[in-house]
Amino acid sequence: MTLSQPDFNFVSTLVRREASIVLAPGKEYLVEARLIPVARAVGAANVAEFLADLQRRPNPQHQRKIIDALTTNETSFFRDREPFSALTDVVLPELIKSRASVRKLRFWSAASSSGQEAFSLAITLQESLPAGWSYEIMGTDISTAMVERATKGEYSQVEVNRGLAATQLVQYFERAGAHWRIIPALRKNVTFKHMSLTAPFPPMQPFDVIFLRNVLIYFDVATKRQVLQNAAKILRPDGLLFLGAAETTIGIDDNYERVAAGRTSAYRTRNAVAAGAARRG
């Protein structure tokens, strides 16, 4: 069956209100496909029955299930390899020099989904930082189901086959039945929390690098600007913001300036770029 227009309007309004995600017309099939397992799990005969009951009797838990189903995005280890190459080749050598007095780095994997990006960052840092350095990685996501999955740190054979080198699988994972589990030595440096990017950010220590990739594309311009402004407040003055390949700050937030990072690009606040230019001058 096809999702009715009133049902689609109900879901799109809910998702926009709770997650600031814009579901444009034409996404009816996607919404229905994502909600079929949810409807079955709560005992409804189909999506229409599930949504009709939810509109008659609002249920916060069922609303959360809809948000979780519609904000679960595609991910893999070392997705879009270039940002990770940029870290190894350009960003980390610079940070190792500038943070030599503290020998500690903080990274944020925003919209971390099931955790592959955060653990890819951990592997990169584990392999690139000199002895005696430490690091912290925080992963956040609006989906409580994804936060639970990421915290568990277990992945199927198919998932570890996507993006991981065989040597990395052997070194950083251990068998857990039919799955693979992140080893404790790597896992201890990564924490996951439930967080909405469109709500006021909770108090956080500043980050050296923020990965905010492939999430702004789901927001309208005003929400993108709000998220970028909040991110700037917790990015160290010389820190870097990485966005997805199809995302940019240009025309949205003039406080950022795009800078080269290996074969890709990242963003620094304009104050940091100006300060760097003054030092070089």
Question: In the residues, how many domains can be counted?
Answer: 2
Question: Could you please say which CATH topology of the largest domain applies here?
Answer: Rossmann fold
Order of helices and strands: HHHHHEHEHEHHEEHEEHEEEH
Flag low-confidence runs: 277-281
Structural class: alpha/beta
Number of helices: 12
Give the terminus-to-terminus CA distance: 66 Å
Note the beta-strand portion: 15-25%
Average residue pLDDT: 92
Describe the structure.
The protein has 281 residues and is α/β, with parallel strands linked by helices. It has 2 domains: 66 residues, Orthogonal Bundle (Chemotaxis Receptor Methyltransferase Cher, domain 1); 199 residues, Vaccinia Virus protein VP39 (Rossmann fold, 3-Layer(aba) Sandwich), CATH 3.40.50. The chain has 12 helices and 10 strands. The strands form 3 sheets. A 5-stranded parallel sheet has the order 6-2-1-7-8, with helices on both faces. It has a 3-stranded antiparallel sheet with strand order 3-5-4. Strands 9-10 form a two-stranded antiparallel ribbon. A hairpin with a 2-residue loop joins strand 4 and strand 5. Helix 1 packs across helix 4. The longest helix is centred in the N-terminal third of the chain and has 17 residues. The termini are far apart.
